[in-house]
Amino acid sequence: MTSKTDETTLRGRLRGLYFGESLSAVRFQLMLAVVDLVIIAFFLLGPYLRDRPSYLIIDYAIALWIAAELVAQVLTSRSILRWLSRPMTWVDLIVLGTLLFPQLLFNFAFLRALRIWAIAQRPIFKVMLRRFGWGHLTEVATAVVNFIVFLFTVTGFVYTFFFYREDGGEGFVDAFYFTVATVTTTGFGDITLPGTFGKLTSIVTMIIGISLFVRLAQAIVRPYKVTFPCPQCGLQRHDADAVHCKACGHVLNIPDEGL
């Protein structure tokens, strides 16, 4: 009985820290976000640091941190199946594998850039936007994060498969330059990927990159709407100052995020 109570208390405390909006929860989530930024910086600087003796030490320290986070996520989740259905769970598991077995899973190391997505998935992301009065920019901020995640994921992929044999810094910059030029369809042609595999990589990068770029432009240009399901017809998106649902005319009571 005692063990069950302790487990429930621990789970409740973790859920409060991970998903709450109290001062202690905000501080805890900010700490997690700062650690995420440090981890992302390490991943991005990996090509410059890979030959240093301390690289593997930091690598395994990050693996230990991510493993601890996965355990905490299991404890805060209502069920294992729900935890496994989260895309970020699989991202963390793959990243953890690349950290624990860097030689064996080298070809998947580019997926580490997906950790950038973890920042946007944390509740603190939207909480801080609201507290600074930028709640109406949530959709734009999410689109920006998705675009950045795509840029660095593709950069990591191109670097891993095409530029890894070059000098760490120069190879990474070439991969990033190629990715930006391809996504923006600038096409200078001074750096191209060889062979059929290179052409297919360029095609996929252009198609997905343009789609995300258009999505970002739409989020910036189109009028701001809030997500508030209509109690009668279920319409999700409404103007921030809407009093009636445009679809069925039902009276709405949309909370003011600024209050």
Could you characterize the architecture of this molecule?
The chain has 259 residues and is mainly α. The protein folds into three domains: 132 residues; 89 residues, Helix Hairpins (Orthogonal Bundle); 33 residues. It has eleven helices and two strands, in the order H-H-H-H-H-H-H-H-H-H-H-E-E. It has a two-stranded antiparallel sheet with strand order 1-2. Helix 4 packs antiparallel against helix 6 and helix 9 packs across helix 10. The longest helix is centred in the C-terminal third of the chain and has 27 residues. 17% of the residues are buried. Its main location: membrane. It is found in: Membrane. One of its GO terms (biological process) is action potential.
How much beta, percentage-wise?
A: under 5%
Compute the average pLDDT. Answer: 78
Helix/strand class: mainly alpha
Number of helices: 11
Poorly predicted tracts of residues:
1-7
Global geometry = globular
